[in-house]
Amino acid sequence: MPLPLSGTRWRQLEQFLKFGVVGSLGLVCDIASVYALRPLLGLDLATLAAYFIAATFNWVLNRLWTFHGLGLHHHPIMQWLRFLSANSLGFCLNRGTVYALFFFVPLCVHHPALALAAGALAGMLANFNISRAMVFRNHPGAPQTTPTQPDKKPHSTTP
């Protein structure tokens, strides 16, 4: 019989599922960016530029939804830069997979969406764990406000 998830594990699973939804939407943004930029920049540069467009899109959605209420003490620009740098391992896994598929699988050059999807999967787990630990977190002394733990307000003693 499976054991029920604790509150912390349930929150992590919920965040992971939301991160996956955001990542799927980011993949759509990534693919659309590659196809839009390819005629102007060529496949290689379009693929590189599209990563930063999709990563920014993902950061916004993760900030507003997946990790809502966490890390708000960070200036948004600093948090965005931390997101990009913290996810550099995911970037290497993602774009490494994409460029390897472009090199070894000619079909992927003609249909970049296939390589982009494989790259997104390659970087997802690393990006989730690093984002949770380094980007969307509160400092030890910061108030812990999340949608599942609203601020406690004092009760009024008057009816």
From TrEMBL:
Query: What is its subcellular localisation?
Result: Membrane
| Keywords, comma-separated and alphabetical | Membrane, Transmembrane, Transmembrane helix
Q: Which GO terms describe its cellular component?
A: plasma membrane
Q: How does it sit in the membrane?
A: Multi-pass membrane protein
One short Pfam family name for this protein?
A: GtrA_DPMS_TM
Q: Name one GO biological process term.
A: polysaccharide biosynthetic process
- Keyword field contains Transmembrane helix: yes
Q: Which domain of life is it from?
A: Bacteria
Q: Which residues cross the membrane?
A: 43-61, 81-105, 111-130
In the UniProt record, does the keyword Cell inner membrane occur?
Answer: no
Ranges of residues in domain GtrA/DPMS transmembrane: 18-136
Q: Which family does it belong to?
A: Belongs to the GtrA family.
Q: What protein does this entry describe?
A: GtrA family protein
